[in-house]
Amino acid sequence: MFRQDRLDAIALLILRTGLVWFIFLWAAHKIITPTQYQNLARHFDGVDVSISQIYLAAGVQIAICVLALIGIGRIFSYGALLVMHFFTVTRRWEGFFDPFALNDRNFPINRNQVIDLAVLGAFVALILLIRRDHFSLGGYLAKRAGRLKWWM
């Protein structure tokens, strides 16, 4: 059967792929509906951003997603995804204190904030287990070099 380190690597591949997809969707959505993100920046952060700034941010996020998906520069790419998501979490923290709030149609309005905490925990776990992430290009290159380089 499979050895435990191989099972760990498979689990991390699945975790990494899911987390990258999660952030990629948000980045791609910036390209599809940039005015929505202009409104969000104005509402949450009190700043006005141009459409070109939103496209630039989305492009950088997508590039980091590609690096993380492949597993290149793991400490940078995984860490950058964590920081991006942490920024989102800090902007919506008030919903954590009332996770069961409903609107007038009995729809849970703070559900996404609760999901955000689970995703944040998954990003932290991905980074903590980076040395077991053998099914990534960085993990492969480190193993091939005969050294344990967790940042590759």
UniProtKB/TrEMBL annotation:
Transmembrane portions of the chain: 7-29, 49-70, 113-130
Name this polypeptide is given: Inner membrane protein YphA
Source superkingdom: Bacteria
Organism listed in the record: Pontivivens insulae
Alphabetical UniProt keywords: Membrane, Transmembrane, Transmembrane helix
